[in-house]
Request: fold
Amino acid sequence: MIIADAFVQQYETLCTAAPNSALFLGVGDASSLELGNSACLLIRNGLPWLLIDCGHDTLRRFAEVFSNRLPEHIFITHLHYDHVGGLEQLYFKAALAGKSVRLYVPVSLVTQLCAMLRYTKLAEEKTDVWQTFILHPVSEYFWHQGLKVWTYSVRHHAPNSAFSLHLPGVMFYSGDTRPIPELLSHVAAKNEIIFHDCAVTGNPSHSGIDDLLREYSSDLLGRLCVYHYHSESDRAHFERAGLRYARALSAIKLR
Ligand SMILES: [Zn+2]
Reply:
């Protein structure tokens, strides 16, 4: 009971301090056990609103903050396992609890996601994963609880295999990507905070500090908050470059 009360207190403190916020559950890259799989919960009016991605450790981290609750609405940016590796676990937990979870999935990812979850089922029940997961295919945008949320293809492996999320005037979440100046300069023009993939050194799949400094204007750089990095020691490099960075379980206020 003491532990549960502590969790509830943590949740209430967090939501009172920042009723509209972004709470990263993890900020790490695929190999960072220390920082957790990158996943971000958007909180509105003090309540969990939309979770972005569900990696291997996302449910455990969500439960630690939100008193053993499960996420109810998830947007999937792409199908690498550090971003969807927790879905099978979520299915079993939700199905056994008689709950449903809405999955917003870019339409070009639907076929492959169905293939990945094809054999996910409770053996003794005459049911399948799509009785628990409410699949919501997304084209350019979707409506979530009265707000219009946009998504755009980004630069991470094959074309149309990874997507960003955008609440105009509130926030832009890049998902895993190389720099996308052509996209950000066109769509993120309302002074939104921009959560952006960034490691100390870039590679063909992800952005690095030098990439961002080279590709983005000072206005865009000033609005970035980077995530998807490898270790705590990377933060000193971000600080030297003048880049703001996200930490796990530290709420970032949104408008
Ligand atoms: Zn990825």
In short: Confidence is low (pLDDT under 50) at residues 1-8. The chain has one domain: 2-253. The pocket of zinc ion is lined by residues 78, 80, 156, 176 (CB under 6 Å). The chain has nine helices and 14 strands.
